[in-house]
Input
Amino acid sequence: MIAPLLAALPMLATAPPPLDDAPRPNLVVIFTDDLGYGDLSCYGNPTIATPHLDRMAAEGQRWTQFYVGASVCTPSRAALMTGRLPIRSGMCNTRHRVLFPDSTGGLPASETTLAEALRDLGYATGAVGKWHLGHRPEYLPTNHGFDSYYGIPYSNDMDRLPSAPSGRVAITEPQIEYFNVPLLRDTEIIERPTDQRTLTRRYTEQSVRFIRDHTEGDQPFFLYLAHSMPHVPLFRSQQFEDVSLRGLYGDVVEEIDWSVGQILDAIRGLGIAEQTLVVFTSDNGPWLTYDQQGGSAGLLRNGKGSTWEGGMREPFLAWWPGTVPAGQVVPDLGTTMDLLPTAVLLAGGEPPSDRILDGVDLRPALLDTGPSPRDSVFYYRGTELYAVRLGPYKAHFITQEPYGQNTNRIEHDPPLLFHLEHDPSERFDLSADHPEVLARIRRLADAHRATVEPVPNQLETRIPAD
Output
């Protein structure tokens, strides 16, 4: 049964009572790039071996209806960091869908990030990996609440050099010298071009070092590990060459799985497993136009760049031995925006009250004391609201394929309507059968749009061409 309209709006929902007896945890967020819903063996992939993630799922929770804030990199990362839909921070755009090396904008200083909120509560904070929320110094992680940063500032296919092959060849047959992507420590470039063959390994080493350096004493820590892959171009270290039945893409994912194993082994070995919450997810669905070098959304429709399920529903694992129930499959709704209020409340603080938050408190579902309070999801493409989920139903007001051919924008009146629990592949339109459901979702969409205020768009401003 669909909940009342106002209860479906995250920013208006009544928060569950605080769970005061929950311990104050360390937090590790592992965020991959362009990983599909069907790319892990614990989510049904038959040829990509992910034993460490499978163990993480067996020792914790595996969520089956978990979403990101957008179907491409920059706005999705902004949603995770702020607990807000990117339309509220200006971190989305219909034409320039992500930030580029010639972009001059970034995540505004007025936004409160997860790192800032936790640092204010006494946490040590570290970011490792891909940032993509602005590469100018004022936008880098060390100016958004992180004590340290090691990683690349935007996607690994950017800064392509003029000497690189044109078209798709540079992506599908890549060399490290084709992409002049910088590797940063804090705000300083320490390598350019980045040797992407060793990025996953080096991110892992930096992450383990951060955890070890912040284990002793009473100060909790927050580590944000954002892998650059399996976003194309695909690179892996020599140890993982030709190890996967799935080919190059599988090699890359299996190295990420190894990385997760290294992180969890370090936490276990340091004796802090029962004080540490680790979550794993990705920024958006698979980049399907890259064929075998792209991933799979499994039974979900479409992938990266779209507002079909394959673009925005992601794997999500939560691991916290002794607190998060082991082996639990969670069918409740959740989003990356929920991590900010949930983590801040677990840390003993209060989420920001001076702005609209789109995230909700997932502690009841995470700690198995009740259901998730979320029962709606808003699917944006750029600055437009394309679809809305309410309970099990999803209405598409607009559809558009993400890349390649047949990318015409189509407005639907009446909207397409799918029952996602019966039909996760979005094959059977039920709009003619449930006009009352469409009416409720229309009212929800109108109520949501009324909360959105215009802000400067951060993705539009670019360095003028010579």
About this structure: The chain has one domain: 24-371. Residues 282 and 300 are 15 Å apart (CA to CA).
